[in-house]
Amino acid sequence: MALVAGIDSSTQSCKIVVCDATTGKVVREGRAPHPDGTETDPAHWWSALTTASSGLLDDVSAVSVAGQQHGMVVIDEDGEVVRPALLWNDARSAGAAHDLVRELGGPQPWANAVGNVPVASLTVSKLRWLAENEPHNAARARGVMLPHDWLTWRLGGARGEPTTDRGDASGTGYWSPADGHYRPDLMIQAFGRELDVPRVAAPAEAVGLTPEGAVIAPGTGDNMGAALGLGLRPGDAVLSLGTSGTVFAVHDRAAQDPTGTISGFADATGGFLPLVCTLNAARVLSATAAMLGTGLSGLDTLALSAEPGAGGLVLLPYLDGERTPELPHASGSLHGLRRDNMSPENLARAAVEGMLCGLADGLAALTESGVPVERVLLVGGGARSAAVRAVAPIVLGTPTVVPPAAEYVAIGAARQAAWTLAETAEPPAWTLGAPEEESAPATDVGAGVRERYAEYRRTAHGV
Ligand SMILES: Nc1ncnc2c1ncn2[C@@H]1O[C@H](COP(=O)(O)OP(=O)(O)O)[C@@H](O)[C@H]1O
Ligand SMILES: O=C(CO)[C@@H](O)[C@H](O)COP(=O)(O)O
Is the model's pTM score more than 0.95? Predict the structure, then answer.
């Protein structure tokens, strides 16, 4: 039995699965935490990967990395990292993003060029921030990579040509998903000169060998990894609740949304992955639980004993600023407080509802853009919450399914590794198993919740 490994190097941790290459059955798993913060020395990712994979990889035939998207890893002439990587959730590049949009004549030219309107998260905005704020580091820069590109290169011994894939390249802001080409003009616009960029490998191209002789697959971004791990089909959307909240679906054409709500990403198979991302997801739940002096299961119990609508309490959960809507410097706020609704139960419920409302808006944007959605698959750490599972179909107004609990980003990377090993036209046909939970048909009970949320958002933030 050939074994393959998938690595999910995400914001909070590194998770590794080793799978049977033919069936996808997970035979071993490992994990290790990443440090907190919005900038990280990539050496920490390597050290977490080494810890998480200890004793796991000796007999694997192929390996692949799916990583948190957009992070800016700048390297010098000798391949050394110039400064800690700025991560997708670092908002200091918000002003740089606005400048880039203005300089190109507004959002539409960006949407047309690269399928994305720059926000703080995109690598292109981070490059502008670096050029303007750390000229000494900018002067040392020779090349720029994404987190998964850097880890893939390290797995091969940090020798030879760095590579990336369509999925992760589509989150840079200087690669066009529609044309499949880099846009050096936009890199120069942002940074003042060209930097070396990784070659974009084909979806199942072998890009190297580990020192132990395992084939290295191209890897991808974490959301593209989840899509591959879930074997996503048209009609299915994914709602992933990790550090970020994302809602996405596979599609046959590149999105070019000038409002900036939808990121027009590519996927890891040659198709497209329109996606909406919020900055505040599972950590809204842990922060609210801590504030209420309880844990995550205590929060579930409280939220499930409140009525839908939380008695009129509305949490705008922009605790770390927000990406969608674009409010990088916002903070969270609680609205609709009255003496008769100020209970821990309503606050817990408002946290779950508020976190989901932004993603319900994202789902609506996807369907309005022509992406068909019949049901929503709930994944990521936040999908373990019983309250989230109960409230999601109400707020989304769409049937939801909870696939068997698993690390789908890592499984997607493992599936890509198996595909690369097999050298077939299509990825291997791995199956998921029976869902843990399926919601009752959706109702319109959540419409009022979403409307109140939108009203307070408009009043507080004008968007
Ligand atoms: N039962 C649960 N209820 C709510 N949140 C949970 C639960 N279990 C895990 N989480 C949250 O999920 C998050 C981790 O999810 P994960 O998808 O691994 O994130 P990431 O990929 O961003 O590192 C953490 O913020 C954690 O608190
Ligand atoms: O920026 C995005 C998507 O555009 C995020 O989804 C990152 O890819 C980080 O993911 P998680 O760590 O939350 O899984």
Answer: yes
